[in-house]
Amino acid sequence: MLKTPYLLFLGDAPDPLAAKVAQGIKDWRPEHALGQLRLEGCQADMRLPDMTIAEAVEQGARTLVIGVANRGGVISERWLDVLEQAMAAGMDIASGLHNLLTDEPRLVDAAARHQVALFDVRVPQVSYPIGDGKKRTGKRCLPVGTDCSVGKMYTALAIDKALKARNVPSDFRATGQTGILVTGQGVPLDAVVADFMAGAVEWLSPDNTPEHWDIIEGQGSLYHPSFSGVTMALIHGGQPDALVLCHEPTRTHMRGLPHYELPTLEQLMAVALPLARIVNPACQVIGVSVNTAAFSDEEATAYLEELEARMKMPCVDPFRHGAARLAEALLAC
Amino acid sequence: MLKTPYLLFLGDAPDPLAAKVAQGIKDWRPEHALGQLRLEGCQADMRLPDMTIAEAVEQGARTLVIGVANRGGVISERWLDVLEQAMAAGMDIASGLHNLLTDEPRLVDAAARHQVALFDVRVPQVSYPIGDGKKRTGKRCLPVGTDCSVGKMYTALAIDKALKARNVPSDFRATGQTGILVTGQGVPLDAVVADFMAGAVEWLSPDNTPEHWDIIEGQGSLYHPSFSGVTMALIHGGQPDALVLCHEPTRTHMRGLPHYELPTLEQLMAVALPLARIVNPACQVIGVSVNTAAFSDEEATAYLEELEARMKMPCVDPFRHGAARLAEALLAC
């Protein structure tokens, strides 16, 4: 579990998109985002106070989070200097980068010297159990997608927020590196060894009070041949009471696989629901979350109305319209 | 890839079942099984020539395969003595034990000293790619089970043998430690990191000639919540043209999960076939393989006849009756 609040390191981000991890933290856990640290040439701005390391520590920052992708997969000397200063000032460092902090001798030495921690959130930190499929108390919702990268994390975070706004006890359960950095904890599921995937999801979403909802971050897609096994483990380890179907209507083929068409929402539902009912016979599909970023407001509204008439359940874009209707559908189920 | 032929080490097996790895090699790759080495008190016998290490090496043995489970998860001093002698005589050592050869300093030292190899077949030896789902040439068959441990490996080996008997080019593709020791190569799929599972199966079963069959060893079950993600990766990475449903009719609940009933064969087919058709729209279920060990000959025959009338496809116990009809069904598809 990462110590909060964070100083968000934006480095020399070449554009705002490169800082999407920082943006996620700012959007979803603003109470963790104390300030930002930008290097010369940084093209991203979270509209947070710019801080030096000394200022951040003085104001209580506990962890420097690398909120930006690095260029060319190398942690540059400029970055290393900053990270070392942060450790010298007593901060932990957290990163979701592919190349690991713990592979950088300078950082490992500095962490030992200053008795602070390096968190590579892509690396599992726990020996997860083998799943046992036992029914757990509390309720669970899992977004499943017609493809990878259609907005499952965003959907889960938005539902979690909408439940909390209704004073319903809820936790977003992160299963990927961005989600883990946003919430400070979770399971990097795609890095877990096959035999322990379902058990890791069970560990992530333990018994809870009857009215509590875990909103579990989805991964992959049952229709994406590269990663469907991870999705399967989420469905069986997650034991969802409710599935939300996630979709991006302008995508022409499965992400990275031009030889695969996307399934329809009906096809996804026909495959996902029987699988979910193996572990939770009461599971229902309660709504559809659509990423309508490619549409105008009018197009989005027209698309969602048509889809809702077809699917006969709430169909919303949580970014455009919020997740209130999905939260209401969850509470009704 | 393990060097053949093998000397099968049966150790101090407390009963024949403990030596099932050795039995598998003897049954399915007798040409690899040069002889056996038994310690005092060994209750297993492969009916192979008993050999000392010197005799085995003289007759050409290249690898000592640990064909027996160890007691209490410890590699005993007695075993270590034998393994060290085998290495001194120039043999590699291969093992599917949970506790690894490479965790034993004595063995690691001896391997370096004698320039031989230690193969822990539970540990992936390859950096597998991420799966790409591209259609591969050649044909593939995958057994899928109503549960774990219902005879999927046996079924695959029996089909492979029946195809070879018909001069059809065929390979058994091992995905578990016993299968890897039997054939000398394969992927220990349950130890592969989640993101690479499907890619590992694609790697295991590459492009081949159009008439060639890969018979891929199954793992887990779509209905077994602990391991269904592994099964899913096999279905999507394996890209099967043909599925064989595997079943053990007297089992009262899912293995290790008394709170889960077994699905019917129809339920398994209804879930598995649409998933397989995502990567291979031509995929068919060509038959059922039943483990009738708990039945008399008469009961088995009656059960299979009734099942065949119900399923309208060949239903056989390959152990009792051979896999000829499954092989014929494959060739017809």
What does this structure look like?
The structure is a homodimer of 333-residue chains. With 333 residues, chain A is an alpha/beta fold. Helices cover 36% and strands 16% of the residues of chain A. Chain A contains twelve helices and eleven strands. Chain A has helices at 20-28, 53-58, 77-88, 105-114, 152-165, 177-183, 197-204, 228-238, 265-279, 297-311, 318-321, 324-332, and strands at residues 6-11, 33-38, 63-66, 92-95, 118-120, 139-145, 170-173, 213-216, 242-247, 284-290, 315-316. A six-stranded parallel sheet of chain A has the order 7-8-6-9-10-11, sandwiched between helices. A five-stranded parallel sheet of chain A has the order 2-1-3-4-5, sandwiched between helices. In chain A, β9 (242-247), α9 (265-279) and β10 (284-290) form a beta-alpha-beta unit. The longest helix of chain A is centred in the last third of the chain and has 15 residues, at 265-279. Chain A is globular, with a radius of gyration of 20 Å. The two termini of chain A are 32 Å apart. The mean pLDDT of chain A is 96. At the A-B interface, α7, α8 and α9 of A face α7, α8 and α9 of B.
